[in-house]
Give the backbone structure.
Amino acid sequence: MIFESECMSKPSSELVLSARERRAVELIGRARELIPMLDRAGERVESSRRVPDDVLDALHDASLFRLLIPRSLGGEEVEPATYFQVLEAIAQGDASVAWCVGQASGVSIAAAYLKPEVASAVFSDRRAVAASGPNNPKATAVVCDGGYRVSGDWTFASGSKHSTWLCGHSTICEPDGRPRVGPDGEPLDLLTVLFPKSSAVVTDVWDVMGLQGTASDNYSTRDLFVPADFSFTRESDKDRKEQGPLYRFNIFNLFGLGFSAVALGVASRALDEFIKLATKKTASGKTSPLSDNNVIQSQVGLSDMRLRSSRTHVIDVYQTVYRAAERRERFDQATRVALRTATCHAIHQAREVMNFVYHAAGATAIFTSNPFERRFRDLHTLTQQGQAAFSNFESHGKILMGLTSKDWL
């Protein structure tokens, strides 16, 4: 992937892009073109607590829900850096919309694990969107003829209002209800099952501080028959049908990449808006604008460096690992930890920038008519999920100190 900075450093006569690179530039450009529309739609997204139909239409028309779907199914199968930059751009317009695109994209990795005909049944429709909540070991998939009887309750199904399919991560159980165990006597990895949203009960619980437009509702099933072909084990080499380098990343790392892109996109937009404000707003009792204040100047410079360095680090780590995947190298634990901590660190840096912007903007920041209040709430809501937890740094610290970590990241 040739990044914008690399393109700008080369004379146009030397810049020759491959078809894949041209497509990446096109997708990023489409996302950036949507920023004004997303910005205008922000209040509707929040008040309706969902992504409006006209916004969904624009996203589908731009193929932005198909970023991680295999090319064999008509998807984009982009490189991580392209995915990151698309979500970053969408987040500059609206965080909830970007979050929904990122969540749906992460769930769409299921297409790489299903039989081609089954994956096509789920994802070939250009408007297909799948939603999923976190693991629930208490949910059960009881083995039966032809598949499973699935019962469970799941939470945080972002995009539930516009999704067409749902995924449930469940414990495989024998017909008598006992968890199925492997040769080592331990329960098998959780099974992911896919079923039409119409087969589940979706409960509207999303009354929250920020990211209100994500409709991250609860959903449940009771004794729902799911054919075996509509199930798979995540991160299983046996179940994975697509062998492209993108699908060597586990779903948690791709979710983390998306979350960090949203965080950095939101924070960068907030910083841009503050810089505009600082040239006009004066501090109490002062006649000169905030932009003349030395402390403000230094903090704006520091904030810009926080965002740029975090962004560069995330892209570099993921692209380095992507190249290794192209060479069919196996990801060791240190590699997966590096991916997780790069994105976690970026989220924390984005939060620091947002905190500076919010406080430096003073009373201006508390009014809903100004571009800070909602973004402040959205970003701080984002930091409350597991990809931003400080515990993500523990495995990194263990590796640096030569200790063994059993965490699977």
User: Anything to note?
Assistant: Residues 294-326 form the longest helix (33 residues). DSSP finds twelve helices and eight strands in the chain. The CA atoms of residues 44 and 176 lie 49 Å apart. The radius of gyration is 22 Å.
